[in-house]
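Worked example 3 (structure in, sequence out).
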């Protein structure tokens, strides 16, 4: 049996975007043994994979930290000499070190083309080239094609129902909201989001679940839950798998351009996503999500960033502040 190593260390949203591709690879090539090398936090994303997929969590903050830690990962723990192929879905220093060691053994190695030139043209301030870039799914699949493993996109969703803590009644509507993102250019103003939460909380037979992980996020979520009826934190006794189980029961999810958009997509939940400094044209829309469910403004300065990590050069974040709460509410429940 041939063995393939797939590398993608971070971030969680980008790791989540590997799931449909790896799943299709595993089902369409059942005689191929696949090892997914990533961060331990991502393990639940690969627990429902076909049996020919294995997960290896690299302890990049401990045992596998730094040059000597990576050497320990490669030679002692990963046993890199056992692989026939290497798919580098990340192309950063850590993955480069791993793949170069594999290449020296004569293994076939292919790295992702991140399309930096096209993304730079899309996000520059002047003379933008406003063209849809290849999605991350397509870029990952291209790596596999170059390794002689072309795939057809057939993935639908993962079923985490075994991790469910609560069950939705037949007459209930469950709506998830993930208000947070890593960078300000991706975060809808909280005072405006509160208007959305208030409107949803007043709907009959509707429960709103707020998703967030950090201590500051949990504090803000607690304040909102105390303020509005039928609003509660998205708690889970089973970590990420439990959150995915809850997302799978949602009727819809409201998310920023963040990891939660991708997590909800993996369980087949419709996501209404808010886009500020970033844009779906950069290739990061969730799996099987519809462009029509993207809430965004057509401004000549958008997008100004691929990842949202650049400050607003106008200084007013008009791309986010200009979105009316009513626009979002209409996307979520306007079809009823």
């Amino acid at each position: 049996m041939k063995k393939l190593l797939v590398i993608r260390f971070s971030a969680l949203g980008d790791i989540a975007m590997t799931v449909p591709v790896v799943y299709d690879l595993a089902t369409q090539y059942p005689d191929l043994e696949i090892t997914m090398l990533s961060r331990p936090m991502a393990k639940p994303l690969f627990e429902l994979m076909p049996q020919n997929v294995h997960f290896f969590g690299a302890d990049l903050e401990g045992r596998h930290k730094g040059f000597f830690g990576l050497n320990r990962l490669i030679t002692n723990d990963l046993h890199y000499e056992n692989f026939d192929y290497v798919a580098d879905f990340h192309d950063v220093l850590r993955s480069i070190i791993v793949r170069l060691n594999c290449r020296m053994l004569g293994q076939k190695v292919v790295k992702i083309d991140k399309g930096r030139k096209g993304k730079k043209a899309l996000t520059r301030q002047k003379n933008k080239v406003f063209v849809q870039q290849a999605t991350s799914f397509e870029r990952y699949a291209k790596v596999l094609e170059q390794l002689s493993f072309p795939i057809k996109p057939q993935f639908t969703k993962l079923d985490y129902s075994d991790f469910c803590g609560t069950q939705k009644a037949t007459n209930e509507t469950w709506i998830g909201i993930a208000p947070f993102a890593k960078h300000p250019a991706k975060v809808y103003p909280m005072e405006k989001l509160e208007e959305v939460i208030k409107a949803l909380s007043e709907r009959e037979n509707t429960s709103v679940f707020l998703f967030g992980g950090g201590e500051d996020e949990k504090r803000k979520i607690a304040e909102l839950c105390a303020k509005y009826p039928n609003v509660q934190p998205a708690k889970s006794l089973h970590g990420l798998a439990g959150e995915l189980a809850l997302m799978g029961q949602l009727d819809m999810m409201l998310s920023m351009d963040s990891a939660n958009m991708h997590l909800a997509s993996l369980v087949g939940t419709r996501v209404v996503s808010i886009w500020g400094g970033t844009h779906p044209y950069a290739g990061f829309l969730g799996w099987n999500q519809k462009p029509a469910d993207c809430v965004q403004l057509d401004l000549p300065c958008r997008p100004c960033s691929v990842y949202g990590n650049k400050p607003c050069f106008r200084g007013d974040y008009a791309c986010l502040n200009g979105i009316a709460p009513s626009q979002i509410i209409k996307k979520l429940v306007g079809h009823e």
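Notes: Residues 161-333 form a domain with the Rossmann fold fold (CATH 3.40.50.2000). The first strand starts at residue 2 and ends at 7.
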